Amino acid sequence: MTGERVYNFSAGPSVLPEEVLKKASDEMLNYRGSGMSVMEMSHRSRIFEKIIGEAEERLRRLMDIPDDYAVLFLQGGASLQFAMVPMNLMGRTGRAGYIDTGHWSSRAIKEAGLFGEVEVLASSADRGYTYIPAMSPIPEGLSYVHITTNNTIYGTRYTSLPDTGDIPLVADASSNILSEPVDIRKFGIYYAGAQKNLGPAGVTVVIIRKDLAGGHLPKTPTMLRYDIHVEKRSLYNTPPCYAIYMVGLVLEWVEAQGGVQTIYAQNQEKAELLYWFLDQSDLFSTMVEPAYRSLTNVPFFLPSEELTQTFLKEAEAQGLVNLKGHRSVGGLRASIYNAMPKEGVEALVAFMKDFERRYGR
Ligand code: PLP
């Protein structure tokens, strides 16, 4: 990190690569000789069509997305996908299966219940969402099965995918898209709000197998129909142009790092360093079962609220910020998305070691 910048462990919106922020700043007033900012351009202009087209191409290359899938840049966050998914897919049978792995999947379940019958196929609520539950055999007649690939608050992630056979698997990948390789062919829909691993808030990426668009429930608003957005290539109305441009710059950065495999190796190194420290510490603890540990969100705890507050205050004074755990679980959490450099995690672990030396028994 340079200058006055801190190591920002926010769960989202989150740290972006410095190279991306610098490039956006250089291009702010005059984007590549156009004499204007990307913020000031018509979304129907050639120049913007190139920006959105290149962002899509980069994501297709990075994730190896085949031609029978569309890549959409939508608004409304992952939360709107909680509604769009059932509105567009539930019509097939009127029933959908959901796996409950915590706060965000519960929200998705609640929203789906507005549009049809929801069957919770498995839940990890019994042990405080500290693991990923195994799924019982899938009942007949489900329109789709929904999972949350990484649970931002509890720090769990799917390390192997459930086998749903012919039933489309739908995934909320908001907090781990592009952090590790995935086979997109295993999913019917794979969606993510951008503000953690992909760019700024304001755009949601939806990767959808094209044959799943078009089956929406009657009276689904036009703006919420996947088939419309697929047909219009995300340009049915004014898209979040600047956020899409920023996502394009982040994807360019990921390519320059060597792609998803390289990023994955870096993420593993960062996460291992932090978990290694937590596992051997007598002062800090983590609840997440080792087999399901997230590479992007690491929740951890100190023995008392008083010590937790002292930790947050002292960490901030050292430029290690946004380490407070989600209000529903308390404690601490380090979000270490793609753009968090290894040095940031090293600085955190060094601080934690010193904290333990001073406050441990
Ligand atoms: N799903 C997951 C896994 C998340 O972590 C979040 C936000 O933190 C959301 C959904 C909600 O996303 P949004 O604010 O884009 O609606």
From TrEMBL:
- What is the annotated role of this protein in its UniProt record? Catalyzes the reversible conversion of 3-phosphohydroxypyruvate to phosphoserine and of 3-hydroxy-2-oxo-4-phosphonooxybutanoate to phosphohydroxythreonine.
Q: How is the subunit organization of this protein annotated in UniProt? A: Homodimer.
The protein, known as? Phosphoserine aminotransferase
What Gene3D superfamilies does this protein's entry cite?
Answer: Aspartate Aminotransferase, domain 1, Type I PLP-dependent aspartate aminotransferase-like (Major domain)
What species was this sequence derived from?
A: Winmispira thermophila (strain ATCC 700085 / DSM 6578 / Z-1203) (Spirochaeta thermophila)
Aminotransferase class V domain: from which residue to which, for each copy?
6-348
Coiled-coil segments: none
Cross-referenced NCBIfam families: PRK05355.1, serC_1
Q: Which GO terms describe its biological process?
A: L-serine biosynthetic process; pyridoxine biosynthetic process
UniProt keywords (A-Z) are: Amino-acid biosynthesis, Aminotransferase, Cytoplasm, Pyridoxal phosphate, Pyridoxine biosynthesis, Serine biosynthesis, Transferase
Describe cofactor binding as the record notes it.
Answer: Binds 1 pyridoxal phosphate per subunit.
Q: Does the keyword Nuclease apply?
A: no
Q: Which residues carry this modification: N6-(pyridoxal phosphate)lysine?
A: K196
Question: Which cofactors, if any, are listed as required?
Answer: pyridoxal 5'-phosphate
Q: Which domain of life is it from?
A: Bacteria
The top of its lineage is: Bacteria, Pseudomonadati, Spirochaetota, Spirochaetia, Winmispirales
